[in-house]
Design goal:
Low-confidence stretches: none
CATH class of the largest domain: Alpha Beta
Strand content: 15-25%
Distance between the termini: 43 Å
Order of helices and strands: HHHHHHEEEEEHEHEHEEE
Mean pLDDT: 89
Number of domains: 3
Largest sheet: 7 strands, mixed
Shape: elongated
Number of helices: 9
Helix content: 25-40%
Radius of gyration: 23 Å
Length: 302
Amino acid sequence: MEGLLSKVRGAFDNVPDIRQAGSVKFTMSDTLSSALAVFSLKYSSLLQFDTEVRADAGTVQHNLRTLFGVAQAPSDSQMRDILDPVDPSALRPAFRALHSALQRGNVLKKFAWNDDKILLSMDGTGLFASSKIRCKHCCVKKRKSGDEFYHQLLAAAIVHPQLKRALPLDFEPITLRDGNTKNDCERNAGKRLLNSIKQQYPDRKFVVLEDALAANGPHIQELLRHKMDFIIGAKPGSSAALFEEVAERLNRSECIESAPDDLNEKGLSCGFRFTNDIGLNGTHPDLRVNFIEYWEFDKKGK
């Protein structure tokens, strides 16, 4: 772990700092490393981290010094003041440094799947929400009790079905400029994230995994533009035309389906159907995809 943290700290050394040199008490690298420690050491808040750092002269200080290279950590308010102006994209080299180290150590080979491809899971996640505190980048959610301000980002991580660990690869903040609906926000951030991933890892063979929000023409066209394979969830409600066409093909015996009483290795009743070269929806009938549906039920029919 110390070696990987050293790689990250090396990348932090190159993050631009807009402060005047004479006013700097805590370096950008120390501040970013302290923020990383908050998450790595599983503190629930910056305030809890700050309180324990000031009160403890033993374990916490030792971990900061030996693992993260931090001799003195800034307070929670100082950390916010220093890091708020930092462009999130300036942190991407830290992710690349880890990726390169894992590649040299042959760790990525363990994540290879289906002819040396890499499964890349992309999904949105919340970072912050408040009814009182906001910034110019906050998204706004209308509630009966009043506006809620929140931060989200779209994250991409390398995964494998037989491995419990995931390897974070890249991220893209979702901000107010991305739109007023969940669909618009993730779609616009997704376009920037795919561009970033392709620029940084042009030779990597990714299979992108996403939920049903990504089952739309513009996003799939972006994936195809970047020559990325994909496995995307779909729901009958939001992809009605797709499921209707599958049902019609099933009636015409143009859809392959498993036997009705199959059991999987867990002893559950299971089944599947699939068909290829089917139009995504009524808006994008020329965008052809392959469809597979899988289900399983226990003895109670659940």
